[in-house]
Amino acid sequence: MSKSGSPLRIVVIGGVAAGMSAASKARRLRPDIEIFVFERSGHVSYSSCGIPYFVSDIVKSPENLVAYDAKFFKEKRNINVFLYHEVISLHPEKQSILVRDLKTGLENEYRYDKLVIATGARANIPQIKGIELKGIFTIRILQDGIKTKDFIRENSPGRALIVGAGYIGMEMAETLVKLGLDVTMAARGPDILGTMEKEIDEIVEDELGRNGITLLKFTQVREFTGENGYVRKAIFNNGRSVDIDMVIVATGVRPNSGIAKEAGIEIGYKDAIRVNQRMETSIPGIYSAGDCAETYHQILERSVYLPLGTTANKQGRVAGENMAGGHALFRGVVGTSTFKVFDLEVARTGLSSREAKIEGFDYISNVIEQYSRANYYPGGSKIRVKLIAEKNTGRVLGAEMAGRDGVPKRIDVIATAITAKMTAKDIGDLDLTYSPPFAPVWDPVLTAANDLKKRITIKEEHPNL
Amino acid sequence: MSKSGSPLRIVVIGGVAAGMSAASKARRLRPDIEIFVFERSGHVSYSSCGIPYFVSDIVKSPENLVAYDAKFFKEKRNINVFLYHEVISLHPEKQSILVRDLKTGLENEYRYDKLVIATGARANIPQIKGIELKGIFTIRILQDGIKTKDFIRENSPGRALIVGAGYIGMEMAETLVKLGLDVTMAARGPDILGTMEKEIDEIVEDELGRNGITLLKFTQVREFTGENGYVRKAIFNNGRSVDIDMVIVATGVRPNSGIAKEAGIEIGYKDAIRVNQRMETSIPGIYSAGDCAETYHQILERSVYLPLGTTANKQGRVAGENMAGGHALFRGVVGTSTFKVFDLEVARTGLSSREAKIEGFDYISNVIEQYSRANYYPGGSKIRVKLIAEKNTGRVLGAEMAGRDGVPKRIDVIATAITAKMTAKDIGDLDLTYSPPFAPVWDPVLTAANDLKKRITIKEEHPNL
After folding, report:
1. Catalytic: A49?
2. Between the CA atoms of B406, B407, B412 and B414, what dihedral angle is there, to the nearest 10 degrees?
3. Average of pLDDT values for A449-462?
């Protein structure tokens, strides 16, 4: 029971990955408490990462992306979900929040005993003249996907511009090409994919080119112009332009930390809500999890901002467990992520060489290519691996891979090894699966590690030679 | 230089995986020494594991299974390969071996400074009446594959019996069904796949049934009978029989350790040559590697007999490095292996529950099923995972998986975690790749570990509840 005599009440702000994970975990541990979830949109517990596949029509209905709906949460888990309810302010001194019902406009105050802020992130929308024209979309919440798909269905656009060359940009490029559009992609600088390695970037660039996508580098949009309110042209900073019928703006996200900040909660790295590994904010009893919050990074041993769906789920569970009286710790990420673009699988874990340099590591790296299967077994293809290790210890700091067969789960092996602070030699000695349909006798992971190992320890290992 | 004044000479007995790995590694480290390889058959450096795929004609020619031929080794690596040369005795007191040229019958003595025995293993052939009939094959060396394929081509057999239900039996079952044969498989006991888990066995049994294979359990062959010297019938211990045109005997292997034993070299577990982690036998200067030798097991912290191609390659490199004056250690296996049967991928690592019990571990286990991809993304299917952990510490001891998408590389994640002595909780917290085409937000590995974790630590973690 809470101080007020009524049952302990947990309030969750935001009903997507982190929020519903927190609510569900708290419920499993405490059947007796009240749990309220306030969600601004009309959907809870959906897969944001599935939105490109909904737009491409691989996923037919938005409901297919919803793991469980509000009714399920009420009936099966006794969790009260308030859809179209926006939390407009927090009042830690009163342990209450002010909530607006977006359908009626009415505002109501709700008390809480424990609160978790899981407001997610919003698309970063650049200040560009004409950005308000019709046909310009971001891909962030489910409603964005629905609007984009409806627009394509109703307007049959022929040409699209994707602003940004990150993961969402790549997935949407594939989606739009498969829907028959002519796609141009504009990257701000010399690189695509943020801090990823150039040896991996170039494979992705080839794949874009092979699929008919025009990639423009050093290119920012100066202005969008339109006809009848619909976007028709993007004019770039270099004076060139491209005729278009629609635009996807995929230039990253920023945390929805505004209400937390206004309530005096400490804000951390890149405007994300500062949290410890218990997912507690600076105010006792208030937690935060998911894309609005910081993430602990195991290699850097400090918090960073790395919003990803799987992290949101893990953090949500930790917050839920702690709100329910438990003692869970979020162990942190090592920087693992992956995406698919056409037939190419790309994945990374740990630090890129650029990040290792920025963080002051003395590192070495290598690049190898090795088949995904025995070279005589059909269906295999070469995987390129870049591996990065600390020079003086051999500890592996990061890896990136690109290929057409079995890439992400191989990155998972290295992510596991990085978590265990393994060296290149440790990885080269791993007892991994071998069978002709699945791997060559020296898996790409082993080959990369053994090659890198030679550059680190050859002198040490052969004192007699 | 050796004691005799001539260059240091390394002699390798057996030119397949371990032997050629040893020779190549020694050469990379020591350009100055002599390296002689004696191989009884006509092929070196081929993939034994590829033989079923050569019989099935996925691989057209035996040459496709050969990584490098004798000519390559001579010309590119200055390694002298003697084909059709059988080593018939070792003379450690003289540092020499006696070798018979199988083409001429002539015998010759060769001195060595360092010797590695990489004689491999031979198929275990049960003492069955009629076993010498034509149409009965083992699948071990490349010549076995060639004979089997030739027989099928020349005789168009309609019905086959596979004796044994292990990995090779499974791969050959798929091969023969794909070649149009009617296949019966006879397993000696109640289980297939040796010590694997019954929850995995049953999925494999379903797959065999779905592909028209008749699986007979508790079935041993008492006698083969024939016509004109060709096998025509197998009569079982229970009195039943089956009409057949060919037989694959796949009842395991035993180490070729005879010449080592005769030379006074210590023999270890299951008749394998006893070696330490430097791959040294009991006689100084004599090494052994591959399927004839013991294997160090990291969980059991002792040697076992677990002949596998990837281990043979690793052990060979270690032996080669040490013969060349280096100080390499074979780190050992954790019990990882995998096979494909039809569309099913099966893999394991660590100890099975039966092995854990035999070894005296107090363990718990669980079985979960989880999709290989986001459930809304096409091409995924359920993976069954059985996970085994030490009860009082949570340390993961083993895992087995079966499914149709992404199994072996997921076992590799657990193999890596076992090597690092991770607990179920450690694995559940891993930062693994997530993207709808590759994994659900909670990968089967994470789901299995988190489920098992609950059974271990729930009381400890919630002292307040």
Report:
1. yes
2. 120
3. 73
Contact B263, B117 (CB under 8 A): no
Average pLDDT of the residues in A59-86: 96
Which band of pLDDT confidence, cut at 50, 70 and 90, is reported for residue B328? very high
- For an interface test with A, give the residue of B433, B438, B450, B453 to mutate (most A CBs within 10 A): B433
Q: Which superfamily does CATH assign the domain made up of A343-461 to?
A: FAD/NAD(P)-binding domain (3.50.50.60)
Amino acid B372: pLDDT: 97
Q: Tell me what pLDDT residue A322 has.
A: 98
Percent helix, strand, coil in chain B, to 5, is: 30, 30, 40
Return the structure tokens found at B76: 């590119």
Interface of A with B in 380-439 (CB under 8 A): 406, 408-413, 415-417, 419-420, 422, 426, 429-439
Residue B348 CA to residue B330 CA, distance in Å, equals 21
B17 CB near a chain A CB, below 8 Å?
Answer: yes
Structure tokens at A286: 């208030």
For residue B334, give the chain A residue with the closest CA: A431
pLDDT at residue A2, as a whole number = 54
CA A422 – CA B251 distance, rounded (Å):
38
What are the tens digits of pLDDT across the range B62-118?
A: 999 999 999 999 999 999 999 999 999 999 999 999 999 999 999 999 999 999 999
Average pLDDT, stretch A17-39? 97
Q: What three-state secondary structure class fits A237?
A: coil
d(CA A348, CA A333) in angstroms, rounded, equals: 12
Interchain pair B426, A435: CB under 8 A: no
Confidence tier at A457 by pLDDT (50, 70, 90): low
CATH fold of A9-47+65-122+254-323 reads: FAD/NAD(P)-binding domain (3.50.50)
B464: chain A residues, CB-CB within 8 Å: 325-327
Sketch the domain layout of chain B as residue ranges: 9-46+66-121+254-323, 125-251, 337-461
| Chain A residues within 8 A of B442 when measuring between CB atoms | 310, 313
CB atoms within 10 A of CB A369: 15
Reported CATH class of domain B337-461: alpha beta
Give the containing element (helix H, strand E) for A360: none
Q: DSSP readout, A190-231?
A: S-SSTT--HHHHHHHHHHHHHTTPEEESS--EEEEEEETTEE
Bridge partner list, B458: none
- Tens of pLDDT, residue by residue over A206-224, are 999 999 999 999 999 999 9
